[in-house]
Protein: RING-type E3 ubiquitin transferase (cysteine targeting)
Organism: Helicoverpa armigera
Amino acid sequence: MSVNYIPRVTQLDAVQLDNQLEELFKQLVFQATQFIEPQYVQPILPELELLIRTWIFKYSVYDQKSTFGQQMLSLNYKSDNFARSKLFWYYGYNVGLKYLRERAIYSFTSNTKVQNFINKLETFQLIGDILNFCRFIQTGKYPLLIDFILGIELSAEKLTREDLTDFSWTRELLWHNFIELIGTSIALINIFGVRSKLSNLLKYVWWRQHVRSTASTMEAVMTLQTVCACCNNKPVLPHTLGCSHIFCYYCIMANKTADQDYSCPKCYFNGREINKLIMPGHQ
């Protein structure tokens, strides 16, 4: 006998588990390719992520009518309203659109019209996700926008976390709300403005002037050990500011958009132009 009521926290936990599982697969693939020259891996990075998401979709939603995160929490989509056509729409939204966006960003980095179009699509999708989340909090159904669009509901064959008391549920809900409040508060703080003011206080320090003067004369070279100067991970779509350090495209664009005076956090070089790193053999 299926359960009629599924707690909201359980449904959101399933979504988080799916996101974490995808990131885990990506890390395993990146570790397996860490000894391959970046010039061979970076051009096909969107395709690698497409294969990972397709594999996850095939062996979870396509075969089992539930994601891996839902299976961990004894949840599944109701099969009576999950027709084959909806599977293709589900795949196109969760996998196909992500691939097209990442491929467009990589292949048309310098095309302003394409980038603006992608930014508008991401904005509309974000607004849709926010509105759907507000609706989900009220109704307790369709935690994802695509679930609401296709009308696919979750069900459970047994009670999830049935050993928890009402007090435990209340405490967990309060904890999740507290985390959301902290995240919202941090988002309201102008981190870039604070950093800019602190950085201006150090502009007369002799060691910073020395580093800045020497940084602009060095050419950026990407090796197997190169990491992004912002996030300290392997650069995704490597770009430069004009100094010897390399950034992820998203990292440098986000910082420059928020603060036009953003300078390299490693050498404090304040480059005005963001340039795509041209690797040998890809000019």
Observations:
- The beta strands are 75-77, 154-156, 239-240, 246-247, 275-276.
- The first strand starts at residue 75 and ends at 77.
- The longest helix spans residues 112-139.
- The domain at 205-276 is CATH 3.30.40 (Herpes Virus-1).
